[in-house]
Amino acid sequence: MTHTTVPAYAAPSAKAPLERITIQRREPGEHDVLIEIKYAGICHSDIHTVRGEWGDDGHFPLAPGHEIAGVVTATGSGVTRYQVGDRVGVGCFVDSCRECDNCKAGLQQYCTGELGNVGTYGATGRDGEITQGGYSTHVVVDENYVLRIPDSIPLDRAAPLLCAGITLYSPLAHWQAGPGKKVAIVGLGGLGHMGVKIAHAMGAEVTVLSQSLRKQADGLRLGADHFYATSDPATFAELAGGFDLIVNTVSADVDINAYLGLLKSGGTLVQVGAPENPQQVASFALITRRLSLAGSMIGGIPETQEMLDFCGEHGIGADIELIRAEQINEAYERVLASDVRYRFVIDAATI
Known about the structure:
The structure is a single chain. The chain is of the alpha/beta class and 351 residues long. The chain has two domains: 3-163 and 317-350, Alpha-Beta Complex (Quinone Oxidoreductase, Chain A, domain 1), CATH 3.90.180; 167-295, NAD(P)-binding Rossmann-like Domain (Rossmann fold). The chain is 24% helix and 26% strand. It contains eleven helices and 17 strands. Strands 3, 4, 5, 8, 9, 16 and 17 form a seven-stranded mixed sheet that branches. The radius of gyration is 20 Å and the shape is globular. It starts with a strand and ends with a strand. Belongs to the zinc-containing alcohol dehydrogenase family. Its cofactor is Zn(2+). This is alcohol dehydrogenase (NADP(+)). One of its GO terms (molecular function) is alcohol dehydrogenase (NADP+) activity. Its EC number is 1.1.1.2.
């Protein structure tokens, strides 16, 4: 297999600062699309991975990035979905087994086949090579794992939709957020701010549950109807039994039982944040009001395209801070300090 060398920002080893290097990209095969990356979002998962915080030795040097927006610059001879000049995106995975029940149902994020869900970076592809992510100038991806970005969404604001956007759209769609439904979004960060925008556009009554009232004006601007501080015990008394659906975007340890108390009978609490420690759940909290505690992870290719089309129709993009590649390490520290409103996006022209 022939390769092309492209510049990228990568971690040379676990916990090391990212630096500019070159990486190899395969030449486009029959069904591959070559994408010139214009923008790449910074996801908290990128930081966890390059710092070895998820119990994996990892593969280094590693270029992270799975919120990719760009333009098609070449296609393989068998490509039918895209042509040169198309505005496209790539999300959290670039392949899957294609044969298991989940893949056949368009739920590639839950692939159970031997190949599994092939992450956009740090995973082993079907060619045996380790995938490298979007902190680079170009990427080659099979056309079946590429998304079309509507013309109405600026590419820089579209990039975070490929992870943050679909991570919130999927549970909101699955549990049918919409008119007549009361939805709470826990946390107003990169994930939470997308949840507010999408749930509002779906027609739900939206409440933000944030640690303090510091971001209240932002929450209301983004489409929330109500905003409460979870640091105030009165919040949990006032809102008890009020929500049909709660989506928890927070990756820190929280008292899940307290949040279950905010659900109506038959309500659902969906976990999309990934806390480091196991959580204690009181069975009676679930049993006595037929509550559901669920999890959700990104979306499959069909649903991700559905999300992009929905965002295009409703004028939804991420609220971003555009940075140069040499600011990535500084941006990581600011993400950890919750000092971003609400997603850093790298201008790939600066790589």
